[in-house]
Structures are given as C-alpha cells and as structure tokens.
What does this fold into?
Amino acid sequence: MPRHFLRDDDLTPAEQKQVLELGMAFREDRHIRQPLSGPRAVAFITDKPTLRTQLSFATGIAELGGFPMVVDGNLAQIGKRESIADTTRVISRQVSAIVWRTFGDERIAEMASVSDVPVVNALTDGFHPCQILADLLTIAQHRGGVAALPGQTLAYLGDAANNMANSYLLGGATAGLHVRVGGPQDYLPDAAIVARAREIAAGTGGSVVVTTDPVETVRGADVVATDTWVSMGDEAQAASRATPFLPFQLGTDLLAHAAADAIVLHCLPAYRGKEITAEVIDGPQSVVFDEAENRLHAQKALLAWLLDR
Ligand code: NVA
It folds into this structure.
C-alpha cells in the first residue's frame, strides 16, 4: 500500500519533521534530488480554481526530474463521467503519484483507497495540508530552522471552520505549535478536529485554543495567519458571510496585540480590505510571498518523501 497525504495528520510528528528538513534543503538547492527522473509522470488534477498550487506542483515535479501531467477536472469530470474508482485505476497505471484538488474529502479518500500510487491532497473542502507544510517551512525560515518550530504560537483568524483552520489545527499540533484559532460563533471548527488536534498536541508539547475573541486569538502570537472569508465552494454564501467576520479583519490594530516581531501569513489569494488590510499584507511583518514560494520546496520534499516509501 502506498502512503498518501490526505490530511495533515497522515504524517507523524517525526515524519513531518523529515519532510520539512528536506524542504529546507530544497530551499538551499532546488536540484539536490531527481526521484522522478526518467521522466516519470505525476498527475495534477484540479476541480477548483488554482494558480499557486498548479504552478508549484508543475514546477516542482519538473525540478524533481519528472513530467507534470496537468488534467483539467472540468474535462475529466471525475465521479460524474466515470466513477472515482475507475478513473483512479486508469490514472495510477500511468503515473507515479496523483495530486488532486477537489471538493468533498470523501472523494479523495475514495481515490486513495484504490490507488496503487501515492495520492496527495492539493486542497479539499476539509483540508489544505500542502499549504500548512509551506507555512511551517516559512516559520522555520524566519525563526531559525525546523528545530525552532515547537513552542511557537500561531494564531489563525477568520473562517475557523474552513480547510485552512482544520489544517492549522492538525498540522500545527503535529509540529508542536501552540495553535489558536479564532472566528465567529457560527464558523468554528468541528469538535472532532479540535479533539484530534489536542490529542496530537499532547504528544508534541503543543496546545490548542479555540475562541470567538479576536484579541485573545492574536495576543502575544509569534505568527498571525488569516484566509479568505469565502472559500471556493462557499460562493453562494458570500452575502451571509459579509458581516460576521468583520471583527476578525487583520489590520494594524489587531496585529499590535501579537508579538512585536510576529510574522504574518496568508495562503493567498488575499482580499485586501476584507480579511486583511493592505497595510498589513503589504507591510514589514508580512512574509506571504516567501510562503507562496515555499509551496514549491515543501511539495517537492513531500513528493520525494512519499516516493521513497
Ligand atoms: N480556504 C480557501 C483557501 C484557498 C487557497 C479556499 O478553500 O478557497
């Protein structure tokens, strides 16, 4: 059975550390390893809009010596034109790994259950685990390496029920971070995710706080992160989502409650004037473009690590 990466907790703390260390090595030299030389192909399939994810996976697969086989989900219509299982059997006979961005998590779980090659979650409704690897790499980059991650406090503000919140909870706890997520009462994470994050944190020295108070979320934090209030797939709720999040906008007043040297993360695309002000995202504490670059290094490390298994 191949190893898959569908959720952040598919890597143990020790395994996540190996991936991050390899990611740091790829940051130093993009061409240290070519596990896909041949070239071997990796399928990148997307059912939702993408820029960073397609770009970083395609570039990364090429730099690993492979061929990025980009498949438009609108053409493939996986699960509609052909079942997920049949599609997966066809794809996995041709490629060395499958990277999929899709909607429900049950879709990618079904793919993984029949795939002969590793399946990687490139964002689902529930999780965005590759982004969190990149975010952890970015914190390591700015805080003295992977060894400096445990004990850092990461505050995530906004839609605390979305894929980024879930992945910060699981992936952050795995890295030994103190994870705080803050959002309006109706947009808090599922109890099961919080319980799983606390279980992981108990073993890594991290901790988990969920709150509806934006100031409590960011107070003293080393890292402050936010994300869009309207995720892909939530567009029909744009109007009902316009007001509840307003107290969670990351502006200079709120950021002033974080540590003086706090760094600011945003997975992008960002909506200036909504979840984050232009002053903050374009300001001196923002490292969002390092974070975007680190998608490349983190995902190359993940693919190389999975292909080694
Ligand atoms: N939560 C966002 C992340 C975008 C990269 C979404 O799912 O649309």
Observations:
- Residues 123, 128, 162-164, 227-228, 231-232, 267 surround norvaline (CB under 6 Å).
- The CA atoms of residues 4 and 43 lie 14 Å apart.
